[in-house]
Amino acid sequence: MNKNKENNHPENNNEPNQDPSVKGQVEELLDDAIEEVEQQQDEEGTLSETEQLKNHLEKEKDKFLRLFAEFENYKRRTSKERLELFKTANQEVMTAMLPVLDDFDRALVEINKAKDKNLLKGVELIHNKFKETLKNKGLEAMNTEKGETFDADIHEAITQIPAPSEKLKGKIVDVVERGYKLGERIIRFPKVVIGQ
After folding, report:
1. Are 121 and 109 in contact (CB under 8 A)?
2. Angle at CA 49, nearest 5°, toward 47 and 52?
3. Of the ranges 20-34, 80-94, 125-139, which one carries the lowest mean pLDDT score?
């Protein structure tokens, strides 16, 4: 019985006098299915192309954001460097003036010993004006006191001597030359003598 059903089915019938309308319908259905699959593939190709464009756009956007962030960092860094440069631009001049300031300090000590009031007053005025001018340009004296703990990061030890007392072992016994800062940068380390 199944055999008869198979023979009666138009697709499985190999007889030459097949109904042309059925054959045409089958071919038409197959053509429609093929066209539908091709259309689906075209739409998928278009979608994937759109997705590719979206991916490309995302990559470009990411690249732009990274470049923008890098540029902002560059601007911040250069403005910070420029600010630091302005603060320390006169470092060379200040360093050259420090021996003159030291000579003024020594001269004041010696003039004070001579007890000439007019000379002392005149030199003090010049000394104070000179110090204030340098201070206004950013120069700041470092306060280093006897008895402070020696710190290699901010002091320069020129020699060690036996400590006069137990309390001064490893500490500053004498300050030979005052240190100076320009802004936050040390331009001359204080020269000190350490007790051992």
Report:
1. no
2. 110
3. 20-34
Q: How many domains does the chain have?
A: 3
In eight-state DSSP terms, residue 19 is -
In a domain, 9, yes or no: no
φ/ψ region of 175 (left if φ > 0, alpha if ψ in -120 to 50, else beta) reads beta
**Domain residues for 27?**
20-88
Q: Which of 4, 14, 10 is nearest to 24 (CA)?
A: 10
Quote the tokens at residue 48.
């994937």
At 182 the three-state DSSP class reads strand
Q: Which helix (H) or strand (E) holds 155?
A: none
Query: Which is higher by pLDDT, 27 or 138?
Result: 138
At residue 15, the pLDDT reads 46
- Is residue 10, in this structure, part of any structural domain at all? no
Same-domain pairing of 143 and 186: yes
- Give residues with Cβ within 8 angstroms of 145, minimum separation 6: 172, 175
Mean pLDDT of 33-45: 66
Q: Is residue 182 part of a domain?
A: yes
Supply the CATH number for residue 167's domain.
2.30.22.10
